[in-house]
Protein 1
Amino acid sequence: MNAIKNSFTLIVLAITALLQFSCTYDKQELIPESNFPSEVSAIITTKCATAGCHNNISYQNAGGLDFSSWESMYAGGRSGSSVIPFSTDYSFLLYFVNSDTSLGPTLEPRMPIGAEALSSAEYQTLVNWIANGGRNKSGELRYPDGASRKKAYICMQGCDQVAVIDAESGNIMKYVSVGISPENTEAPHMVRLSPDGRYWYVVFFNGKIIQKFRTEDDTPVGTVNIGTGDWNTIIITPDGKKGFVSATLLQKTTVIDLENMVVETSIFPEFPHGGFITPDGNYLYLTSQLGNFVNKVDISNVFYNYDPVILQPGESKTTASRYDAHEMILSPDGQKYFVSCQASNEVRIFRTANDSLLGIIPVGHRPQEFSISSTRPYLFISCTDDPSGTNRKGNVYVINYQTNSLITSVYTGYQPHGIAVNDDKDIVYVAHLNSDSNGPTPHHSTGCGGRNGYMTAINMSNLSLYRKTQPDGSSFVYRNELLTFPYFVEYKK
């Protein structure tokens, strides 16, 4: 009898152990590893990544944001990145979970919807986590610094910030504060890479400096005072040693020694703005934003002599509004160059060897910025104010630079301006000002004030809007909410 009783007891114990093991296994399967730090996971996975909201089943109906894991959170959603490492000011996750205006910005609808608001301690836990880089439970950053990382830079003219976009994911990996004046908006107007890709420079429309940053980690390495002016562009020599910075209304172009960050001299062409330097480093071309000419500057000697190139043969030089050249760009082979004429709404094409006119292509209203592909025969130009239908403004025009012919135009969003080809991903980044109150309502607002702009992209394989694919196979039109007045885009290979 005791033997039977003992055998029965052993069987019961074995079954109990098996059931306990099975329950533990099922529990682990139902709650996937989030990879968040434990204190962050306790908030996000239990209050955000819940049924009907930001989990891996319901996220499509929640702005495309999936918070079920650290990795899926950084995939972003239909308005871009909700968490931006080191940037508590611009991570909109914080806006929606904050219920105390004394702690930071708040936005409706408050999250979690239909549940108790986060406590001040929980909110501060998220703030501290993002301020420390939004790392995973192993302390790893989503976008570690490195010289080989491909990224795009977008200057926010209304906010003294530069957004850094991770090219692989298309998401904002950081914001970099630029400028030196905490009291005044210095209005970063252009970001320009050095030819070797090691540095980027910022030009301020309402400032008096040029700043130099290292691309490896986006830290500042130099500043030069060039005096107050409406500085707008910097054009860098092929060897990266000199930069020519122009102020249109001041009618001044300042020459900077970029290695030592000191001013060398200045020249005074009429209403200078965009341009390029020939591959041999001998000539600088500068547009004149009023008139019918561009200036060709001999930079092979210290005198910097310059002469006009008349945009229409047979005309006499004038600074009265005529073509009003805004920007210029060289073809990849350097054999010809293109000029955006914002008063006559056209692109004019010239042979580099003798500055002869090759063709004229009508485009949209007030053509602005260029970007050119090296893998496809496409030249892209933003026409910010081009009429394009009800509740629309602006188009991007596509030119075949080999045949000098217009291919098509693409509506990429409201008031396109900054534009940059990424041949590595076969796309074109387009930044939209969206400063007009008739434009689409921004997804959220920030401490910058004003209306947020945004970025979309063109798929060069079919010249349509680029779509971002989700893990479940669905896709949506790529769009990244930015800050106020995103003006210029530069891509680092």
Note: Residues 1-31 have pLDDT under 50 and may be disordered.
Protein 2
Amino acid sequence: MQGSTIGGFERLQEYVAYGAFHDSGERFDPPKCHPNTRVAIINRIMDWINGLNEDTREALIMWLYGAPGAGKSAIAQTIAEILHGQQFFLASFFFARNDPQRGVAKWLVTTLAYQLAAKLPPVFRERVALTFEQDPLIVTKSLEAQFMALVREPLLELLHSGFSTNDHIVVIIDGLDECDDPKVQARIIDLSFRLLDSRDLPLKILVASRPEVDISSSFDRKPFSMLARIPLDDDYQSEEDIRHFLADKFNEIKTQHPLRSYIPIDWPDEDSLDTLVQKSSGQFIYSSTVVKYTTSARHRPTHRLEIVLGIQLPKAGDSPFAELDALYRHILMGVEDVDLILQIIGFIILHPPNYVNSVTFIEAFLSLAPGDVQLLMHSLGSLISVENHPYYPNDPEMLTIRILHASLKDYLLDQSRSEEFFLDRLKMHTRYAEICLAHMIELPSLESNSPLQPLPGTTPCTLIYLSFYVLTA
């Protein structure tokens, strides 16, 4: 019996994505929260895990979601390290797009089962090993079958053996949106709920991802009592965290950079810091990119920051925002009707944020059917938010569009960065002026007896705006 158990566990190890562990050598120096940042979010997640928050005590699954670069993986990594340090029973899977093992779901269940088997009492490991002995092809079966055979049933057997713990076993699944198949992403969520539906396991699952369509839809269908949500939005003072992060990193540069003796003591000034915080839009990827670029030991930090701020031009081939540009490119390449989407985004970027950014007006202006803008923007939920108007929150015709990343504008208006996604100001303004003229020509004459029927979503002020736009564009 002993020999077969070892054989079964060795077979399991052949199907483990070791690079997906929170402490994997392949992920050495993974992103994690800068000291004294994200404190409120980390405390809220830890309170949920420990059952200290009355509002989330019944929830067995927590969804941490936000825009690209908001810091989801850093938070998940930090939570994993805290739990590891506190001797929790922990298993994790950090997805990574295009990675042959971490970018697909086929390794997920076996990887989680291996980590639990390595940390839980031997009963769990023996049951998993026996499963492999009895069914060597278990890894070819559905995710549902694998979850039941390699996680749920071994945990139940462990509990029946007399095992008990004051703490929950915790599973962390990070970057679910980076799994290669959106349908599988939704299945993983469904399976997680099915695994815990009977509430007979001391298990909690933390999922971190972007709010992509299939993921959001799947979570929206789940019972409120089982699920806690944490949106990475303005409620968590991310701007203050980003300012703290930038200030600390610039101080490190001033004390550790080879050219530190040439850096002014008051560098950077408050205006520059304000600009960087504003450009970050609450997303850590922008500030992290700035720090990486500015820290280069082969260049003057002061000069590099001037390039970031647009005071100096970069040399040919020097791209301060290469990482950020790659992210935007990946997102835009994955959407349909990108030309129409860019026309809508361009309209928002090139116009002052007033009444004309309402969804109703944009649909009428671009001759789209009601609901088209929401459908188009749905695929860009990580960059664009369609939300209630702050002054008319209960009026469905007053939905507005908000760009979540201030740096997206810089990207789209710089042809060297955005290439085929470039928004040419002159061409866009010309196109919008043509549309304005077409609408104005269609308006009934003020001398006629017919009542004026303006564009839906417009007011007389908006019509004046159209006229002004045609004359000044």
Note: Residues 238-256 form the longest helix (19 residues).
